[in-house]
Structure formats: structure tokens, C-alpha cells
């Protein structure tokens, strides 16, 4: 596994795995807590079919990585630093669905209020999970999404 820092923004990294045609799926992880991003990357590392995991610590970095690498799956936190016209993870969700409507988006947050859940669902989120009580669902859902992408 290899990590690279995006030279334009220290909040973005790319983790790639040895080249393997059986692992073509790219995933974006956006969370402002580096420890959470590392935990998610470690969970995704065990899923067959995952080629690379892009990591962003803020909204602008996430959108830049989405546009540059076109991941098929995005895992986004609701509350992250904004900038460049993006206020939070919900704005990133909207940007992702506008530019990549086929991407699956999983919202994973500590702010799992009904208001945020409704707003994310209306914006096109595929899943909405509470970090404190539903974190264990994340690898299972991602594994199913990856399997579905590889069956295409």
C-alpha cells in the first residue's frame, strides 16, 4: 500500500494498492478526523475489488479528488471544514451527485439528526449512518457496493 499527498492541499491523500485488475474500484473518504479516515481505510483494505482509497479532510479537497479520480463510491461526513463555496459534507454530496450521478454516497456522521438524514436523502445519499451506533455497517455495505460494481 502506498500513500501520496496531494501537493495542492495537505488535507488530501491517496492510498493505492498494488496494481491488480481484480481491484478496479476507487473510493473517496472525507472526514476531518485523520484517525477516522485511517480506520475507514483499514476497513476498506480487506475488501476485494478496491483499487484505491482517496482521503480528504475538508470539502474542497473531496470535490477536487472526486473530479480528478472519479471514484465510484464516496463516504462523507456531514460536518467538515468548508471553503470554495462548499459549507459541509452535504454540499459535497450535492456536488458529487451533480457531477457523478451514478456514484454511491454513504454519509457517516456523529450528527445523525433527522434533519440531516432527510437533507442527505433528498440530496441523493445512498446510505446514512451514525458513526457512534452504525459504524460496523460500513464495511458490509461497501463490500456489497463493490460486488455490484464488479458484476457490471
What does this structure look like?
A seven-stranded mixed sheet has the order 1-2-4-3-5-6-7, with helices on both faces. By secondary structure, the protein is of the alpha/beta class. The longest helix is centred in the last third of the chain and has 14 residues, at 137-150. It contains six helices and seven strands. Strand 6, helix 4 and strand 7 form a beta-alpha-beta unit.
Keywords:
single chain, 152 residues, alpha/beta, 7-stranded mixed beta sheet, 7 strands, 24% strand, disordered N terminus
- CA-based gyration radius: 14 Å
Structural class: alpha/beta
Work out the strand percent: 15-25%
Q: Roughly how much helix do the residues carry, as a percent range? A: 40-55%
- The rough form would be described as globular
Describe the largest sheet. Answer: 7 strands, mixed
- End-to-end separation in angstroms reads 26 Å
How many individual helices? 6
Mean pLDDT: 86
Ranges where pLDDT stays below 50 over 5 or more residues in a row are 1-11, 16-22
Number of strands: 7
Return the string of H and E elements: EEEHEHEHEHEHH
Strand order of the largest sheet: 1-2-4-3-5-6-7
Short note summarizing the structure:
The chain is of the alpha/beta class and 152 residues long. Helices cover 41% and strands 24% of the residues.
Give the topology.
Blueprint: E1 2-5, E2 12-16, E3 25-30, H1 34-45, E4 50-56, H2 59-69, E5 73-76, H3 89-99, E6 104-109, H4 114-123, E7 127-130, H5 131-134, H6 137-150
Parallel strand pairs: 3-4, 3-5, 5-6, 6-7
Antiparallel strand pairs: 1-2, 2-4
Helix pairs in contact: 2-3, 3-4
